[in-house]
From TrEMBL, chain A:
Gene Ontology molecular functions: chloride channel regulator activity
Source organism: Trichechus manatus latirostris
Keyword check for Translocase: no
Transmembrane segments: 6-26, 33-53
InterPro entries attached to this UniProt entry: Barttin (IPR029181)
Keyword terms of this UniProt record: Membrane, Transmembrane, Transmembrane helix
Domain of life: Eukaryota
UniProt-listed GO biological process terms: chloride transport
PANTHER family in the record: BARTTIN
Compositional bias segments (type: Pro residues): 212-228
Protein's UniProt name: Barttin
Automatic annotation (TrEMBL), chain B:
Descriptive protein name: Chloride channel protein
Catalytic activity of the protein: bromide(in) = bromide(out); chloride(in) = chloride(out); iodide(out) = iodide(in); nitrate(in) = nitrate(out)
Organism: Trichechus manatus latirostris (Florida manatee)
Subcellular location(s) of the protein: Basolateral cell membrane; Membrane
Residue spans crossing the bilayer: 50-70, 90-110, 161-180, 201-224, 282-302, 327-349, 396-416, 423-441, 461-488, 495-512
Length: 318, 687
């Protein structure tokens, strides 16, 4: 929440400013003046500090555990997946459905239909990045019921990342970013590159995950209206709360090496997708307007596009 | 962000987020959260935002006062240094020049390092923002600190650099208003509402001007005149409310600080109350207005030319591009060397600060008459009771000093406006106009020593009144506003000169508006900001121009039944931002608008679920997830230019499609409108 952070900092800065002003307005025959300033400034500083400290609570990340991942999707399934994604994006969810705890991700709902979940409690800093890697595959074979899929899943998860990475070198790799881009058009225009990255992650993961074909996902009641499905999800949560305490130990070590393997592959993949897109269309769209409408500052830094309709274009400012 | 919810085993009730499950002291937290919810409901009620306006006014007043306080301290330190440094000329010169040089270079370096948007006044960009153009990051809160620090340093250089406070302060208050409305949207979880935010921004502009001068009326009117092309009366009370809160707080703070006993005006004048001026003097006021208008045309022309020269000259633009502080240093060095008091500065009254300039120019004595017989001394320090002694030189008299001041400050001010640091350009223009008025008043007072009306009771001419009129007229002509007249009254409390000052302002505006673009419009032109100009030349011919004459007929439409290969060909061969979507290739009925980026993304997702035999067309892609925006407003080819222009201005539009009987026939955007308007004023030569 970059916004909330600026609000917290602004609150504290305002409190300090009031304190400083109260110090300068010190006049002995009017103590109520600087008293008021001190009081307000002190309240704001203390409130802001307490608020900031409350932000550092432990966050909980859910890890999809087992065999619900599909194999290499059949085209039909992929199409259904796409439709599902698009419909999921389009409808507003009435209750908070099961999603992963990172920001701004209208998340892939198909992955959320797990009867067995694994959870990992970890400390959360403001940066959502560390959430990405540790979510991937915490192999806890003993902890869950669907244990057969556990280590395989995590392996497959890491492999998924690698597959995506390699896949993007070939033509086939274009499918993957292409498919993942089916979801963003239906999404609201958020931070577009980051959104597509995370959804690429999701679709890539769902594709490259464990080879078990997923009957639950296939028979997943897509024709059903969404509400029963999400409430079913929540019931699943409540059943599995007994598992909360289980996977807390021994999770930290496997994280480490996987982090390194996973993150660089994403980073290498991500800029490539951005370059692929213009080469796909074959036409670069500089979107330069005429000189009259060009927001020009005299020097150095590039001029941002003034028209808000154009502001969406990634990487076209040159 | 969506969160997981859960329940403790065995507990009933609503599921709470997992964060709360595992956090300590759940009851206290719940209590605090309920309390905050209640507070939030009270504070951020959906339809009321008067508390936000009040907060904005009070905050900006606090910031303005704190800045004035800091500036006052720095200036006092500089004066102390200059006084204590001794008699060596070199040391005194160094102490006079190094101070402003260091401050301005720090100001430009610091503010430019944080953001390039922090330089200059900020009002031209705000004007473009309020017409609906989005300038990325211009209202970001991180520019706030940069601009405050930069502005404080600029103003601490004092009258050496001769710059003011209004422009950047308006920018600061608009930034603060955008920030507060984001807080509000976050608190009540409402998505950004453009019209509500625009109301806040307009009110913030009024607050900015009002808290600089502690003048609510002129604050609101000045912000209306300078920043808006159309103003809705709905915003009126909000602007006044916020401006009054700000002005009141700004006037209360010196009282709290025991600097003043009660709320008074910023510049005290003691003009004669019963007969402030004689009737024939109105003619001279109007002539003064005309003179101010002519001088303002010259000033605007020179300023714009010099700004363009700076940008195009190879050496200067390179210097500005590589090292802005170096340019500021050089410019300030020139300015400080000229205003060095034992040197040329003696003739410029350079020991006075900006406020003292105005105080001395509004003096109610007639200097010409006093100095005809006696010769006041030049005190080692400016005498606060008789500040006008600074203007007197035994050989040149006040006329020489005033004339020299006008000539030198003309180009020095133009040079100072090009320094890339946050600075306002209204106050120096105000002071310059006051000097013009004073010179004219002194000349009149010398020409008519006994007053104009002969016989009976004589009322000598008060040049201070002319200084007031000159200040209002010149600044009004430069900014193309009338509300500077009201500003003059609010600053001095002198409303008795209302009519002559207003007539002078009108005369100056009449001349300036017919010859030159205003100061801020000129900056928009030079910086090439996107802006829709007015329609000038409202002659007979302009009413016959209709949209059909100037619309862009070459539009590429995408039909719903177009095969995909053709769609791809069209999309790749053109590069407009959005495509009009028509029902079918024959009918060309306009049904919507498709954005290029989304269309390309949708095209790339080759969905395998389409039946192989079916000819894929655009309809499928659209159904597959590319959103189509509906058409809400359209033009007709018979719409006149004036109607279209007014439509664009009122609704803050950037472009519209033209449809005739439903068929999409053309496209009108600012480019076409500007071309049509320029063809009106400068008709192209007939072939």
């Amino acid at each position: 929440m970059a916004d909330e952070k600026t609000f917290r900092i602004g609150f504290i800065v305002l409190g300090l400013f009031l304190l400083a002003l109260g110090t300068f307005l010190m006049s002995h025959d009017r103590p109520q003046v600087y008293g008021t300033f001190y009081a307000m400034g002190g309240i704001m500083v203390i409130g802001g500090v307490v608020w900031s400290m409350c932000q550092c609570y432990p966050k909980i990340a859910f890890v999809p555990a087992d065999s619900e991942f599909q194999g290499i999707l059949s085209p039909k399934a992929l199409g259904l997946l796409e439709n599902k994604l698009s419909t999921e994006m389009k409808r507003p969810s009435p209750q908070p459905p099961y999603v992963r705890l990172w920001e701004d991700a209208a998340y892939d709902q198909s992955l959320s239909d797990f009867t067995h979940i694994q959870m990992k409690v970890m400390h959360y800093s403001e940066d959502p990045r560390p959430l990405l890697a540790p979510e991937l595959g915490q192999p806890q074979p003993g902890a869950t019921d669907g244990g057969a899929g556990g280590p395989v899943d995590s392996q497959a998860w890491v492999e998924a990342a690698v597959v995506v990475h390699r896949g993007s070198d070939e033509d086939e790799g274009e499918r993957i970013p292409a498919q993942s881009r089916s979801s963003p058009p239906a999404c609201p225009q958020g931070p577009a590159p980051l959104a597509s990255f995370q959804q690429d992650l999701d679709v890539g993961s769902s594709q490259g995950s464990s080879p078990n074909p997923s009957p639950p996902n296939g028979e997943e009641p897509r024709p059903l209206p969404p509400d029963p499905w999400t409430s079913k999800c929540q019931l699943d949560h409540f059943q599995d709360f007994a598992l909360i305490d289980a996977p807390t130990s021994g999770d930290a070590p496997p994280e480490g090496p996987q982090q390194e393997t996973v993150l660089p592959s994403y980073r290498q993949w991500y800029p490539r997708t951005k370059e692929e897109e213009p080469s796909d269309t074959g036409v670069e769209e500089p979107q330069e307007e005429d000189d009259d409408l060009y927001y020009g500052l005299p020097d150095g830094p590039e001029d941002p596009f003034p028209d808000k309709e154009l502001g969406f274009e990634p990487d076209t400012q040159s | 962000m969506e969160e997981l919810v859960g329940l403790r085993e065995g507990s009933s009730g609503n599921p709470v987020t997992l964060r709360e499950l595992f956090s300590p002291c759940p009851r206290i937290r719940r209590g605090i959260r309920d309390g905050l919810e209640w507070l939030k409901q009270k504070l951020f009620h959906v339809s009321e935002d008067w508390h936000l306006l009040m907060t904005l006014g009070v905050l900006m007043a606090l910031i303005s006062y704190a800045m004035d306080f800091a500036i006052g301290r720095v200036v006092r330190a500089h004066q102390w240094l200059y006084r204590e440094i001794g008699d060596s000329h070199l040391l005194r010169y160094l102490s006079w020049t190094v101070y402003p040089v260091a401050l301005t270079s720090f100001s430009s370096g610091f503010s430019q390092s944080i953001t390039p948007f922090s330089g200059g006044s900020g009002i031209p960009e705000l004007k473009t923002i309020l017409t609906g153009v989005v300038l990325e990051d211009y209202l970001d809160i991180k520019n706030f600190g940069a601009k405050v620090v930069g502005l404080t340093c600029t103003l601490a250089s004092g009258s050496t650099v001769f710059l003011g406070k209004v422009g950047p302060f308006v920018h600061l208050s608009v930034m603060m208003a955008a920030y507060l409305s984001r807080v509000r949207n976050k608190a009540i979880r409402e998505s950004e509402n453009d019209s509500k935010q625009k109301e806040m921004l307009v009110a913030a502009a009024a607050v900015g001007v009002a808290t600089v001068f502690a003048a609510p009326f002129s604050g609101v009117l000045f912000s209306i005149e300078v920043l808006s092309s159309h103003y809705s009366v709905w915003d009126y009370w909000r602007c006044f409310f916020a401006a009054t809160c700000g002005a009141l707080m700004f006037r209360l703070l010196p009282v709290f600080n025991s600097e003043q006993e009660t709320i008074t005006t910023l510049f005290k004048t003691s003009f004669r109350v019963d007969v402030p001026f004689d009737l024939p003097e109105i003619f001279f006021f109007v002539v003064l207005g005309a003179i101010c208008g002519i001088v303002s045309c010259a000033y605007l022309f020179c300023q714009r030319t010099f700004l363009g020269f700076i940008r195009t000259n190879w050496f200067l633009s390179k210097l500005l591009a590589t090292s802005k502080p170096m340019y500021s240093t050089l410019a300030t060095l020139i300015l400080a060397s000229i205003t060095y008091p034992p040197g040329v500065g003696r003739f410029l009254a350079s020991r006075l600060s900006m406020k003292e300039h105005l105080d001395s120019l509004f003096d109610n004595n007639s200097w010409a008459l006093i100095t005809r017989n006696s010769s006041p001394p030049w005190p080692p320090e400016p005498d606060s009771q008789n500040l006008w002694f600074e203007w007197y030189h035994p050989r040149f008299t006040i006329f020489g000093t005033l004339a020299f001041f006008l000539v030198m400050k003309f180009w020095m001010l133009i040079l100072a406006t090009t320094i890339p640091m946050p600075a306002g350009y209204f106050m120096p223009v105000f002071v310059f106009g006051a000097a013009i008025g004073r010179l004219w008043g002194e000349a009149l007072s010398l020409a008519f020593p006994e007053g104009i009306m002969a016989g009976g009771v004589t009322y000598p001419i008060i040049p201070g009144g002319y200084a007031l009129a000159g200040a209002a007229a010149f600044s009004g002509a430069v900014t193309h506003t009338i509300s500077t007249a009201i500003l003059a009254f609010e600053l001095t409390g002198q409303i008795l000169h209302a009519l002559p000052v207003l007539m002078a302002v009108l005369a100056a505006n009449a001349i300036a508006q017919s010859c030159q673009a205003s100061f801020y419009d000129g900056t928009i032109i030079v910086k090439k900001l996107p802006y829709l100009p007015w329609i000038r030349g409202r002659g007979i011919g302009s009413h016959g121009v209709i949209v059909e004459h100037f619309m862009n007929c070459t539009i590429t439409t995408l039909a719903k039944d177009m095969p995909l290969e053709e769609v791809v060909k069209v999309v790749t061969s053109t590069d407009v931002a959005e495509y009009p979507l028509v029902e079918s290739t024959e009918s060309q009925i306009l049904v919507g608008v498709v954005r290029r980026a989304q269309l390309m993304q949708a095209l790339q997702t080759e969905s395998p679920s389409w039946a192989p035999g079916h000819q894929q067309c655009l309809q499928d892609v659209l159904a597959g997830g590319c959103p189509m925006e509906p058409i809400t407003l359209q033009l007709s080819p018979e719409t006149s230019l004036h109607q279209a222009h007014k439509f664009f201005e009122l609704m803050n539009l950037q472009s519209l499609f033209v449809t005739s009987r439903g068929r999409a026939v053309g496209f009108v955007s600012w480019v076409e409108l500007k071309k049509a308007i320029s063809n009106l004023t400068n008709p192209p030569a007939p072939k």
